[in-house]
């Protein structure tokens, strides 16, 4: 690039967008990168406070900030992302559809350790809506050595998954089993089922069936088998998750021959959470807090399962970092620290 006086710029090619600010009226690009300066542009540039401008001098090996930012954005983007037009060396990535953002912390670190390269993102597993901003790329200098961008592109190739992608939630048929003899025998009204149904439907899935079961291992198991025989692709079993003698939900799930991933999670509320798999069908044992707390471990785990991700015990253990919900009077999740 070359710095020249505005009065000498007629015929030169602008190397960057030129922003004009008229207080209270307008702020935005007055001239775009690539614009060929005309005689009539000189007074406008001077009125914008530009005594000198940078113009293109085609230095070999250097690329413009806009091109560099765009190449970075394309390199890190997997599915479910939309790239906007470059503006002053920045590219914004937005969600192409509703879903969950998957971002590689190692990949983001690998790029940001390169001199002059910037990638800023939302947290991993952040729930997003179509059109939400999820990330942005930029380079610091107006012109950057192309070798740096090539290194960034090569770094991305070393990761098995995209650095960023937005995965849609699958629309599953969900079976719900409400446990508890007090509900089964009609002594109290079931208040767990409506909460679970509302959450399931908010994620785009449907409740296949909801059944009641007393605190009896065989009856709980029979209810789960019945749900599976009807095509349930996910099973939610509510209640009976503590260590009281009458709380037999974990024993019932394990007794089915399910693969137990975890009984217990480092998340509050939701410590007495259970996750198991019967074949490919996830079964969750949900503690009572899911019924009355706005957000719990269920809200962190279920959306990931709905993307098709198969979770391990390590995945659950990692939830401890950020696993404390502050239970604010007005819930702002996911725009808070919970799950991050």
TrEMBL record:
Entry keyword annotation includes Metal-binding: yes
Record flagged with keyword Transferase: yes
Domain MoaB/Mog: 175-307
CDD domains: MoeA_like
Keyword list, A-Z: Magnesium, Metal-binding, Molybdenum, Molybdenum cofactor biosynthesis, Transferase
GO cellular component: cytosol
Function: Catalyzes the insertion of molybdate into adenylated molybdopterin with the concomitant release of AMP.
Record protein name field: Molybdopterin molybdenumtransferase
Lineage of the organism: Bacteria, Bacillati, Bacillota, Clostridia, Eubacteriales
